[in-house]
Every structure is written in structure tokens, then in C-alpha cells.
Design goal:
The chain is α+β, with helices and mostly antiparallel strands and 185 residues long. The chain has helices spanning 6-15, 22-42; strands at 45-50, 72-74, 80-86, 94-105, 111-116, 121-122, 128-130, 136-137, 143-149, 152-162, 175-184.
Amino acid sequence: MTIRRPYNWILQLLTEDMKWKPINKLWLVVLIIFVLGAQDIFAQATITVRGNWRKRVRANQITEAGNDFPNSYQSSRTKTRITIRKTPTSSLFPWRVDVRGDKVLWDNRLTLLARRTDSGTSITAGATITGGTVYQQLTNTDQSFFSGTGSIRNIHVQYKVTGVTVLIPAGVLYETTVVYTLIEL
């Protein structure tokens, strides 16, 4: 049994008993068009996410009962940077980004929210992005965050945590991993 790699098969197709008749030339043209066209068909879109956020609330910031202290904290507007790209970048492919929060160590009285703060920079001419500009609660289930077409870089995301109270135990590192999933539509 002989195992042939695809390029060997193409080479043999061109060399073995091939009489250059018009029908064979047509097959060669069809094969070349398929191979060149398949690059776009088999190209995969990718999502790259950079950044994280840590907020440290010290026990000495809460001096005594009855004093006001913030029950919510938010990150800077550019805390996380997302790039969505597909090669070739000239393609206006439709996509959606889903988001969820995988709680590593978390108190259920705390709520984590996220929002998109800008539209990023288009890599593809005519690229679009919609949705995700209002804070939405992150749960352990994937939910639609924002969608668009084409390749876009530097889409910024901001986070907010609410529900901070003196009733939540201090001295614990509460942690959630935010998971972004790119779906080609």
C-alpha cells in the first residue's frame, strides 16, 4: 500500500499517461482554480485577547461600619484588547464574539460585568462592529457579546465588579477567567 501526499498526487496527475488533450487541460484549469479558491474557503478566523484586570480592595479602606465605600469598581476603558482576523484580511466574513465568566474562586454576591468601549481599528476596508457597548453580566454560560464583519484590531473591553460589601470575607483573592469565543456565521 502506497500513501501519497496531495502534492505528489497532483504531480502524478500531470505526468502519468497524460495526453494534453483539451479535456485534460480543462481538468488542470479546474484543479488550479479549486486549489487557489480553497485558500479562502479553508482559512480560519482567529481571536487574540490581551490584558487582564486586578482590583485590590484593602481591609483598611473600610475603616468603620456606616462609612460609605464604593460597592462597585471598574477597570480602565482599555483594559483588554481584542483582535479578530482572517487571512486574507480582504474578506468581509461575518462573525460573533461570545463571552462568559468561568469562576475560579468567587463569592456569588459579587457580579462581574463587561462592555466594549470602542470599535477598534479596521484591518479590512468596510469592516463593521455592533453591540456590546452596554455593561452585561458575565455568567458561566456563553452569551452573545458583540458581532461584526471583517478583520478588526484593538477592540477594547472594560470590566466592572458590583456587589462589594463588608459581608464578603476579606483576605481572599476572588478570581474569574473571562472567556471570549469567536464564531464565524
